Amino acid sequence: MKFPLLRRHFSLLVLSALFTGASQAAAARAVTVLVLGDSLSAEYGLQRGEGWVALLQARLNRENIPAQVINASISGDTTSGGRSRLPALLAQHKPRVLVIELGGNDALRGLPLAMTQENLQAMVEAAKLAGAKVLLLGMQMPPNYGQAYGKQFADMFGTVARNKQAALVPFLLKGVADGPDALKLFQADRIHPLAAAHPTILNNVWPVLKKLLG
Question: Is 190 domain-assigned?
Fold first, then answer.
């Protein structure tokens, strides 16, 4: 009378082992997306899970795309900071795609555009040398920085993308910072978007990133 129970128990063990093996195999096939950014990607002023990077992981999961997102963003970071941190991150995570969201703090601090461009180019080169595809997220400065400077800053991202053959989202905050009621989508500092704006930010990134994931 005990044999049927033993057989059923054995079958459950086999099924459990198969399920575990399949899960481990799926995890092994998952690719890594590394996001290297500043406060716009680090959920500054938001609850955990409300930022566009967390929303990206949720969308990948919903669409059954085997990818893991590593958010290496730090509030206040500059391109110099990202450049110094990148080699260790590449070695540790071995990403399929590197998303670079840096440069805004360089401009806010009045750092030379030439230095910012050099840092961005160096990061793209390092990532490609490590076997990663690169997506640059462009930024624009408020009008009070001057029309000439604003154009040079915005154009810099496209220049780096063309020169180094990286993918580009021209303006990360399109539909957020350039609308008629833009202030309603920002926190009190008028720099960091509210949680309600982050789905729009993700929608700006998603089409280009999805192509890089194949």
Answer: yes
Q: Which of 120, 166, 116 lies closest to 141, judged by CA?
A: 116
How many domains does the chain fold into?
A: 1
Structure tokens at 56: 């990206």
Backbone angles phi, psi at 31, to 5 degrees: -100, 160
Query: What SS3 class is residue 72?
Result: coil
How do residues 99-112 score in pLDDT, each as one tens digit? Answer: 999 999 999 999 99
Domain that holds residue 47: 31-213
Kindly state whether residue 25 falls inside one of the protein's structural domains.
Answer: no
Q: Residue 51 sits in a domain of what CATH number?
A: 3.40.50.1110
pTM above 0.85, yes or no: yes
Asked if the structure places residue 56 within a domain, the reply is yes
Kindly list the distances between the CA atom of residue 124 and the CA atoms of 12, 24, 67, 119, 177, in Å, as whole numbers in the listed order. Answer: 49, 31, 21, 9, 26
Verify whether residue 189 is a known catalytic residue. Answer: yes
189 within a domain of the structure (yes/no) = yes
Q: How many CB atoms lie within 10 A of CB 114?
A: 9
Q: Is 39 a catalytic residue?
A: yes
Catalytic residue of the set 9, 155, 189, 198: 189
Confidence of residue 190 (pLDDT cuts 50, 70, 90): very high
Catalytic residue among 9, 106, 192, 198: 192
pLDDT digits (tens, 9 = 90+) for 78-134: 999 999 999 999 999 999 999 999 999 999 999 999 999 999 999 999 999 999 999
